[in-house]
């Protein structure tokens, strides 16, 4: 077996790995987008309620409800900021793009002939290593497992193209 064939096989496996990583981050980000309702939008609503304390002149015990809304709002904002949610989600988006782009490069490598395959493959390996080394986000294992099922299922039953 020649080195070119071996590299193509490895490139095919790497393409699958990259697709799984991208899918796992996409699934995780989808979950995080839903939690943003709790940590981003709910505090805004609660702050509006708290700000409506001016109506306390007309409604009994409004100041208690406004105080509770202000407290809950600030607690949710602190949780969001301390967990660094915005930076984490931005990193997930960066990794999705990086892994999808790299999956395409690996697919191109194993589907067409390239000049200097060893050098080209080495460059791809350097890129994937850099992505892995610089990644500041991880996905929970259950999202990676779901991604594997989706990606491997897609490979087992490829979409028909016209």
Polypeptide structure, described:
- This protein is mainly alpha-helical and 162 residues long.
- The protein has one domain (3-154).
- The protein contains five helices and no strands.
- It has helices at residues 3-51, 62-82, 85-111, 117-134, 141-156.
- α1 runs antiparallel to α2 (62-82), α1 runs antiparallel to α3 and α3 (85-111) runs antiparallel to α4 (117-134).
- It is rod-shaped, with a radius of gyration of 24 Å.
Instruction: Count every beta strand, where a strand is a DSSP E run of 2 or more residues.
Output: 0
Describe the sheet with the most strands.
Answer: none
- Return residue spans where pLDDT drops below 50 for at least 5 consecutive residues: none
Give the count of structural domains: 1
What is the alpha-carbon Rg in Å?
Answer: 24 Å
> Oligomeric form of this entry?
single chain
Strand content: under 5%
The N- and C-terminal alpha carbons lie at a distance of 34 Å
Give the helices and strands as they follow along the chain: HHHHH
Instruction: Kindly name the structural category.
Output: mainly alpha
Number of helices: 5
Portion of residues within helices: over 70%
Please state the average pLDDT score. 86
Q: What are the key terms here?
A:
rod-shaped, 5 helices, mainly alpha, 162 residues
Layout of helices and strands:
Blueprint: H1 3-51, H2 62-82, H3 85-111, H4 117-134, H5 141-156
Short description:
The protein is mostly helical and 162 residues long. It is built from 5 helices and no strands.
